[in-house]
Fold:
Amino acid sequence: MATTATSPSISFFSSSIFGSSSRQNPNFLSTFKPNSFLKPLKPLSVRSDLVAIPILSFTGEKVGETQLNLKSAPLDTARAVVHRGIITDLQNRRRGTASTLTRGEVRGGGKKPYPQKKTGRARRGSQRTPLRPGGGVVFGPKPRDWSIKINRKEKRLAISTAMSSAAVNTIVVEDFSDKFDKPKTKEFISAMKRWGIDPKEKSMFLMTEVPDNVRLSSRNIGTLKMLTPRTLNLFDILNSDKLVLTQETVDYLNRMYAVEAIGEEADDEEEYEDGDEVGQCGLFAATGTCNSAHYLGPIQF
Structure:
């Protein structure tokens, strides 16, 4: 293969290191380093995004501003980190209970249906062949564990990166836990409209504690997700058009997902991010007794 003089790539035929210069210098192989042409790897780093978010009262008026300071992955790796986090969440939700029977497991088929010869028909040894109705299944699914593991710090980085990217669609409201004397969905929808949230759009509310009246008032809204720090997950963050926080949850996010919190151990509220989720939502979920806090329900594939 001919190469031009302006080609920046290294050719094994035209390069001087494989030419006559190597014969003239007998110590070439001792001084040549195989990785000399590779660029040194950049250390993994995170960045901090400081975003100012307005604070709205229960009536919809702006009463101040707060700052959301979360760590984020670098721009060239943020997409990959979030993708790995969401794939892990979705795959760990699979129960893996789909099962079929092979021709050796289907009942019957021990007797030869008809003689081998002198019938004019194709030879057949069993009625449970995959070619017949009621027979076995070739290469069908069997119960398996679909769960995969993700590092705790990597998952926390994916959640904080997603929250930082959704800051433009995030609002902070004052604590409205005591505003509902009784469950009333109509009043909750009116409050959402005062905050500039369309009830037809997907919205996620993140509160440290959800009172019963607030939970009962919002449960009939199909586009709304009411979460706590223990049930916070990456899928609902990416699947929402609007994010609604309270001042307590902002303080919690700044404390748990700040750059300074990278090397700290997670609190009890973050136990769902541990590697034990593989055992809780993998094959154990097939029994229907998975009690993991972030488990969003089974997916049959």
The longest helix spans residues 78-92. The radius of gyration is 30 Å. Strands lie at 47-56, 62-72, 170-173, 203-206, 224-227, 242-246.
